[in-house]
Amino acid sequence: MNILDDLKRKINVRDKVQLLIICNIVVFVLLYGLSVVAPAVYHSLFPYVAFVADGTLSLVRFWTFLSYSFVHANIWHLLLNMIMLFFVSNLFFTFFTTRQFLFVYIIGALGGSALYYLSSFFFGMGYGLVGASAAVMAPLIALATFAPQMEVRLALLGRVKMIYIAVVIILIDLFQLSSSNVGGHLAHLGGALVGFAYIFLLKRGIDLAKPKKNKPKNKSTFKQVYVNKSVEKNVSKEESSQKQIDTILDKISRSGYESLSKEEKEFLFRQGNK
Fold first, then answer.
1. Predicted structure pTM score
2. Contacts from 28-31 at CB under 8 Å and sequence distance 24+?
């Protein structure tokens, strides 16, 4: 019982990235166990969790456009994607919120399966699409698009700018389009396209991850309104923080992440963890 209590304390249910990693691991363990114990059942279930491009039947199994991103071919496939998910999310939170990360991650997965599906009408796509690679690719390319001069320390290579990392990854996928896994690499490119499109719109004032506010309905009668001073103070404080974030993001776009002062970096980090 003590082991379970310790595990519960270590697992932060409010950490959405941690929950994503746990969900991927749980799904892998369940499917792998099923493939060992009941292979026939596993193969029957596979088209209902992985994304199989099969004309209109794929549209009937609409949930597989997303569920495939929680299915992995083997333990190494899972480990690589989860390491990348952890690495990319921590970099992404330097500038953006958890809501924005989850939005880009999910539409990245959908973008990957959508391009895979459309390409299946022109190419042989293999048995099916699995893995979180396209979902992880979206925030990675979004980050490289937003802060191309941001530097990341990589083993053996030292400090490398995000733009170079993104270019190398995309070139690898483009060169691999002639391989037997053409569908997987097309899905990666679909996720990359989604990440680029999100930042393209964000820089023009359109944040697709921002929840829409319901407009108040016009009423023919009026009623007396009492202003809560503490709420008013909090609102003005939020507006001030947002203005400071916008100023810092403009500075990053012009001169890169390294041009920020220590105080500005700490401020961004605090905002990203709210």
1. 0.74
2. 28/71, 28/72, 28/75, 28/78, 31/71
